[in-house]
Amino acid sequence: MSAGPYSYQLIDPPSGTDAGAYRNVNANQINDLGQVLGTVSGSTGSHSFLYSNGNYTSLDAPGAISTTATQLNNVGQILGRYSDAAGSHSFVYQDGNYAEVVVPDAALTTALQISGAGKILGNYFDSSGLHPFIDDNGTYTTLSVPGATSTIVQIGYSAGGNISSAINDADQVIGTYVDATGSHSFLYSDGSYTTLAVPAAISTTATQINNAGQILGTYSTSAGNSPSSTLSFMYSNGTYTSIAVPGATSTTAYQINDAGQVAGTYSDQTGSHVFLDNNGTYVTISPPFSPPPSGNGPPTLSAFFTQLTNAGDVLSNYYGQGGSPCSGSQPFLYSDGTSTNVGVPGATTTNATRINDLGQLIGSFYDGVTSNAFLATPIRADVMQPALLADLLPAAPAASALVAPTLENTNTGSGVLSSISDTIGADPQLGLLNNQGAFGL
Questions:
Q1: Cβ atoms of residues 215 and 206 within 8 Å
Q2: Residues 6 or more apart whose Cβ sits within 8 Å of residue 339
Q3: Which of 28, 101, 210, 365 could be joined to 344 by an S-S link, Cβ 3.0–4.6 Å?
Q4: Residue 4: per-residue pLDDT
């Protein structure tokens, strides 16, 4: 998907969500339905909300003292925890309904992750200890590696705070088990357990699994008395492949998509860089400009990987010195071989944190006065706007007034922010201001 131009809109829940002396809004996750899971915080604490189809929904489990949403999947299910007089509980929310996640006879149940298929991975505690489980719509399967003294599953976070998947849509799970010989990584699939061990490695750690069952992870090696080093690998159909950018002094793989592409960062004599690995072909991803020199030295610029989409698009942020456009933080998107700046127009800094498979971005920006959350939606010149945005915008009579952008009235850069009404259920204004005119609701 080609990047830009983009329309930008504020993510700003109604002021009644937090009545404190100050408020801060964060857009935390976005799914492929264009729904945004966020948090508004202030002097009275923090509160989770869902932004969907122009509406804000405050997430409050019935009878709860506090509710915290932790994950949003691609079918609109939200995982989280709430506290009440009886203690802390896990829940799954969808379409206004809250369902507690609780393993029968367990003293404590903790939901960790929900897959795109709605299966929940978690841990429960009973008189015999801690056990991982899969919840399939109320049917619970305990995970226990044969011969192990303990079986452990947990979720991690990769670059940009992205959740590293431990369960995929085929109910395959990665984790760790301990036996008499030590700690090992495993893959659970169709009731069977496979030990994951990179040949000649002294340790192997699985960190992420995609929907094709391919696994991303790290392994450590040691040669003689030299210190061990941590390297990245991909496991696919019984084969281990080391991920190492040629000529790099170090390579760190952060994410694998459903097509088996891997993205991350590498370091060499010139600094740190973002890369995309497409079946062993490595592409260096650079910001869409050459930074000016810093004093009499080389350009100062740091690029950091943020997220990889299933289409192979790579979202990154760069930080630099030496004046515009290097100063501060700015995001850029690599798509179809081209890098494009996708920062909020006019903002001092922009930090893009998530991208969905439609190319929508969320993040935060600073306008010189306050920090704000935003949602950016791509507008492609070759697609009729109403068709592109039909599933993303609320139904409204004014929506029919949108016209198809043309080469004459669409620029190739970014749009300009339009404010959003601070009322529950209000239709968001979609604004794109270019060199010739503006689109808007």
A1: yes
A2: 285, 286, 287, 288, 332, 333
A3: 365
A4: 60
CB 49 within 8 A of CB 40: yes
Using 50 as the pLDDT threshold, list the residues of the chain that sit under it. Answer: 298, 322-326, 381-441
Quick one: tokens of 48?
């989770």
Q: Residue 211: what are its φ and ψ, rounded to 5°? A: -75, -10
The token duo for 138 is: 């109320």
The domain ranges of the chain are 12-384
**Residue 308 corresponds to which tokens in the numbers above?**
């990889």
The answer to whether the CB of 169 falls within 8 A of the CB of 115 is yes
The two three-digit tokens of residue 126, written as one number: 């009973």
pLDDT the model gives residue 14? 83
Q: What's the CA gap between 323 and 132, in Å, rounded?
A: 51
Residue 324: what residue type? S
Q: Identify which of 356, 306, 309, 308 has the alpha carbon closest to the alpha carbon of residue 330.
A: 306
Cα 370 from Cα 99, distance rounded (Å): 37
Here the tokens at position 44 are: 């009275």
Q: H/E element holding 388?
A: helix 385-389
Indicate the class that CATH gives domain 12-384: mainly beta
Q: How far apart are CA 80 and CA 63, in angstroms?
A: 15
How is the beta sheet containing 23-30 ordered, strand by strand? Answer: 23-30, 36-42, 45-52, 55-58
